[in-house]
Amino acid sequence: MKKITTTLLLAIGLINATNLKSQGLYVHTISSYGFSLAPMAISANYNSSGIIESVRSSFGKGFEFGAGLGFQFNKNIGAEINASYLLGGKSEFTDATNPNTPADVETLKGRMLRIIPTIKITAGEKIRPYTKFGFILGLGNKLIDESVRYDFPGMIVKTEETVEFTGGLSMGFKGNLGVDFSLSDNLAVFGEVNFISQGWAPKKNATTKYLVNGEDKLSTLSVYNSETEFLDSYDTNANYDPNQPRQSLKVYLPFSSWGFNVGIHYSFGKKKE
Length: 273
Hints:
About 5% of the residues lie in helices and about 60% in strands. It is built from 2 helices and 17 strands.
């Protein structure tokens, strides 16, 4: 939170240090969809014929929406502070190796609140091409892992489980190429292509759902079997304690993406002649 507060204070300081004109202040919406960029192998598909297929993805793909506040210092240079929320798309893989049961299915999807201070460089009048670049701070990060597994100890046993990975900040960078189209002195629409480079290492996970043949069995799991702490290092010789979370090495998950963003840009005050 200190980093967010510092960023906001700097943005306010820049505005106050400038000869503030109301026509320099603007707001805009954020509505975009991102595709996987620099995907990593997250698992594999297995089928009954013995073929294994790698599944590569980035959890940064999916819909993103939000809003931003900006200030145009002069005709060519501005600054923004944006906030957006990622509703990540599903990454799915299956295991169909057991001929006696339906295929096991596992899906992963990311969630993230992004705070993005940026610099905007623009040109033109009615049609204004621009580029933006900035820093990303990811908050409230979450990876949701949902699985349906089948066992066959003489009869089919169906297990449904949800595990949520949380904790820790995420940092990255974002670049945009776009065009503003003026509809009036105050109103414009825009379209842009954006690129995000970002990763995230969760601090822990916890099982939030555990059903066996439709019956809730979450309370039967020990803390060790339902929670994990992710660390830079840990002692494998430590004594087993069922009332303490399992320990595992920290893993960085991919959240990079590229995509398209469209929105509305509203400037306060009248345009300078």
